[in-house]
Amino acid sequence: MAQILEFLKKTFLRPRPQSDDDLMMENHLNINFNIVVAEFLDIVESTGGETASSLLKKCEGLSVIYYDKPFDKSFLNLESRTLFDLVDKGQSILDDSSADVLIWGCREGDKIRLNFQTSSQYEVTNDSFVTLMDSLYFPASFFTNASSFPTPLINLLYGAVIASINTEDKTKQIQKKYLLKKIIAKLSSDTSTKSISFEYMPYIMNFLGLIYLSYCAKSETEQDFKIVKSLFDTALSHKDAVKNPLHLGCLHAHLGQLYSCISQSNSKRPINSYRNAIYNYQLAQKYFGKYTYPYEYGLISYRLSSLFYNYWKQKEDLQALRDSVFHLREAEKIFTYALFPGLWAQIEGNLGYYLSLLSQTTSSYEIAELAIAAYKNQQKIITEKREPLLWAKIQESIGDIYYRLGKKSADRVYFEEALEYFHDSLYIFENMNFSKDSQRLTNSIAKTNQALSYH
Description:
The chain is α/β, with parallel strands linked by helices. Helix content is 62%, strand content 7%. α15 (388-409) packs antiparallel against α16 (412-431). The longest helix has 22 residues, at 294-315. It is elongated and about 85 Å long. The chain starts with a helix and ends with a helix.
């Protein structure tokens, strides 16, 4: 471990001094994230989960519970046939405990493998880069008692937990970033001499990369992204130590996430970032097959769709737009209406939009009808009663498609359909006092009526 830390200090991680803003935040933010550590799948007399809990209880900003209720943990082998059991049981524990993160532990030989699960881990709203398949390995002997655990590895575990947190709460996001900053400073200044074998390098580097990426994801500093890339590249350079190919899939997926972040920063070469993100995501899907690890595959497909769409906007490459639709269709097969209604609705909305663009570009009636069908699917979740504003915007989008079909075919039926959808939308906008939207719809209705008068 000493060699790894020296390598990090010289090459990547730099201590970041606390600013006045940080000190003010330390004085005013008092948020504890709820963490549950499940009893490890280990030898009978093991107390590994309890040891991990005691270590994390000493960490700032965490409220930790040790969950030792007995249940069958055979699903922790990460095999595809037990994946749904793992997700379902973890979600149940998260719901019962109102926890932000659930930590699983499983013995593999002389090692303990840790995985991190959160609610909404397979949702678009997930703002964490850590996946359930990301594995962090430690020597099992470290869990014998808390004093056996080297300080830098405690900080690494602490950082992995904070990086895993998925929250839409802005204040919690600020706290998360602040804690990550402090953890990075600790990792980069540690002088511990405790050693650990280099066979742990790919997993340590993967999580160091995730910790740093979680901290700098919205950075506009190129150096930050270079640091993250170096950490993931170093992990991949030790891939001979990786026994389970799932972990290689995780690394390529994180490189895809990294390049997506770069493309959203003040990047001078977004096209290169799109290409690199697409390349790494497609490599990751070779490890996460759609029939073996469907959730991982499906989320990557969803992200690929967005990347291909952005690529199309830059290059006007029709095949890229077709590819964006293809990958949404792949995600749609996995994240179904019954199991993932929120994500499914998002997929259907994007499908409606991308297909409408494709129908304009190719002048295809059939594709336009598919776009309308996708928008109507979205309205199975986004209803007029529950979300009237979003519902009205979908109505307007459908009306726009019908209007274009009417212009192309000179068929009154399409104009009449457009009017019906426009009027539905206008009614909502007027009742909600959205004057600009109301004026836009009034103009759309006027031009549709004018078109009708000619046919």
